[in-house]
Write a structure and sequence with these properties.
The structure is a single chain. This protein is α+β, with helices and mostly antiparallel strands. Strands 7, 8, 9, 10, 11, 12, 13, 14 and 15 form a nine-stranded mixed sheet that branches. The chain has a seven-stranded antiparallel sheet with strand order 2-1-6-5-3-4-16. The chain is globular. The mean pLDDT is 95. A hairpin with a 2-residue loop joins strand 14 and strand 15. Pyridoxal-5'-phosphate binds next to strand 10, helix 6 and strand 13.
């Protein structure tokens, strides 16, 4: 396999805050730049994926690579590297930083067309990656209490317009939802679709629990890897899961609500629109799935250990 611009000895050790892979070279995260004419930047014409490293191992790396490949196919993006090379870049990012807990992102952008062209077929697609210390949507302390979420008046962009199963940077609706949550003393938000069904939040899928049954939206959402893992766990534990439209009203009446994300796993939502959910603490189903999710991180089938330099 091709070598990826291995940094010289003097460059090693400058990765305390993270590392990025840009233009075929590894650079300290603060020095990583995007070419301003890349359509990934100018038009959000890009896809990405995020995988985490926990206790020195990637979690469900092949699931993330599968989704990244599907996303690129759907957008007709052709990265300059094969899957094995992309995997190796991700490992090298983590090795260089030495991080045992990391947030690792891979990105494919449309790139830049020849000057004057507006034809996406003429762009040379680009690949970027980076690793930074693990990022939480809600840190473990916050997770004990749970987050206050508001169901946003902002609708998520329709799946007919932007395919949400392609992980994308069309976040203007999610960010508008966050601002509306902050105005109502919320900490995060859940967006709705045109039929007043909930879809997803900024960086997470949503589950509601009612009478011991889980429900999660089946449409208008990213097929989250954490969502998939939670569905597998629930099935193994004998907890029924419905993938279906979830009307916003059901959220108001749920016994438990939680979000799922690579950036933090199973995240209890204990207040909705100012109303306390259940008894105001993470519920028993949420806690069970939370525990099982983190336990999985020690199982060989789900983890790919990093062979660190040190
Ligand atoms: N939905 C959106 C819009 C996201 O951006 C993310 C993750 O970033 C998720 C859901 C959760 O997906 P995953 O569990 O693969 O992290």
């Amino acid at each position: 396999m091709e070598s990826f611009g291995q940094p010289s000895g003097e460059d090693r050790g400058n990765y305390d805050d993270g590392v990025a892979f840009v233009n075929g070279r590894f650079v300290p995260i603060a020095q990583a730049c995007v070419p301003i004419l890349d359509w990934g930047f100018l038009r959000s014409d890009a896809t990405y994926d995020v995988v985490h490293v926990w206790q020195g191992s990637f979690f469900r790396l092949e699931d993330h690579l599968d989704r990244f490949e599907r996303s690129m196919d759907k957008l007709r993006l052709h990265p300059p590297h094969e899957r094995a090379e992309i995997r190796e870049v991700l490992f090298e990012c983590v090795r260089l930083t030495g991080f045992r807990r990391a947030y690792v992102e891979m990105i494919c952008t449309r790139g830049t067309p020849p000057y004057g062209s507006r034809d996406p077929r003429e762009c040379v697609n680009k690949f970027f990656a980076f690793a930074v210390p693990f990022i939480w949507i809600a840190d473990p302390e916050k997770q004990k209490a749970g987050l206050h979420a508001t169901v946003s008046p902002v609708q998520r962009i329709q799946p007919e317009s932007v395919d949400p199963t392609v992980k994308n940077y069309h976040w203007l609706d999610l960010v508008a939802g966050l601002f509306s949550a902050y105005e109502r003393e919320g900490e995060t938000t859940i967006l709705i679709d045109g039929e007043n069904n909930i879809v997803e939040g900024p960086g997470f899928n949503v589950f509601v629990v009612k009478d011991g049954v889980l429900a999660t939206p089946d449409r208008g959402v990213l097929e989250g890897v954490t969502r998939k893992v939670v569905i597998e766990l629930a099935e193994r534990l004998g907890i029924p899961v419905d993938k279906r439209a979830v009307p916003a009203d059901e959220v108001q009446e749920a016994d438990e609500i939680f979000g799922t994300s690579t950036a933090g796993g199973v995240i209890p939502l204990t207040k909705i629109n100012g109303r306390i959910v259940g008894d105001g603490h993470p519920g028993s189903v949420t806690q069970l799935l939370h525990r099982e999710y983190w336990n999985l991180h020690h199982k060989q089938c789900s983890s790919s250990p990093v062979d660190y330099y040190l």
